[in-house]
Amino acid sequence: MKTFVGTALTLAMLATAPAWAGDAKLGALEIKSAWARATPPKAAAGGAFLSVTNTGAAADTLLRASSDVAKTVELHTHLQQGEVMRMMAVDKIEVPPGQTVALAPGGLHIMLIGLKQPLAEGTSFPLELTFANAGKVTVTVDVKAIGAMNSGAAMMHDPARHQQNMADPAYKAMHEQHMADPAHKAMHDQMMKGR
Ligand SMILES: [Cu+2]
């Protein structure tokens, strides 16, 4: 699966990256490079990304993320189906022993829904992660430029694409399920009228 980046590759990437103020260790887990994309003034949602390395011998699982910057925080993934990139909530993210799991644009990510204020470039905010075995840790998320990387999430919520996607019954069903959540509905309505 492409969401599991090879440990060697990821470690090589991290070795050349400057140390992150917010890097954290929690038992056998190393959480690195937590960042979020800055959001435009009217955006009601944003994405946060990081990598988790499990240096232990037992698997662990990311169960939950939470932050004061948004009303709701969800674990999400992207699925490419034909030409359409779909975003959906997952209830957990496995971190196998000896592996690094990268949460990155276009793949697994932490979705911040119902932002209380825009995420401003150069600022940072705390994000609490809860793992099944290791417990809880708070990391510092650095907010980077809007264009830092291409966003599946932004594409997903592009109004033009949304209309196209809604022609797909599976997407429509997922969308209706999301819309039952008031925070998601607020985000959705705002994005559709904001452009
Ligand atoms: Cu998402």
Overview of this structure, please?
There is one protein chain. The chain is built from 5 helices and 12 strands. It is of the alpha+beta class and 195 residues long. The protein is globular. The termini are far apart. It binds copper (II) ion (CU). Copper (II) ion (CU) is lined by residues 76, 87, 109, 111, 153. Residues 76, 87, 109, 111, 153 line the site of copper (II) ion (CU).
Mean pLDDT: 80
Series of H and E elements: EHEEEEEEEEEEEHHHH
CATH class: Mainly Beta
Strand content: 35-45%
Count up the helices. Answer: 5
CATH topology: Immunoglobulin-like
- Tell me, what's the shape? globular
Which features does this protein show?
195 residues, binds copper (II) ion, alpha+beta, twelve-stranded mixed β-sheet, 5 helices, disordered N terminus, Immunoglobulin-like
Break the fold down into its secondary structure elements and pairings:
Layout: E1 4-5, H1 7-16, E2 24-26, E3 29-37, E4 45-54, E5 60-66, E6 70-81, E7 84-89, E8 93-95, E9 100-103, E10 109-115, E11 124-131, E12 135-144, H2 152-156, H3 159-165, H4 169-179, H5 182-193
Parallel strand pairs: 3-12
Antiparallel strand pairs: 1-9, 2-3, 3-4, 4-9, 4-10, 5-8, 5-11, 6-7, 6-10, 11-12
The protein binds copper (II) ion.
In short:
This protein has 195 residues and is an alpha+beta fold. It has five helices and twelve strands. The termini are far apart.
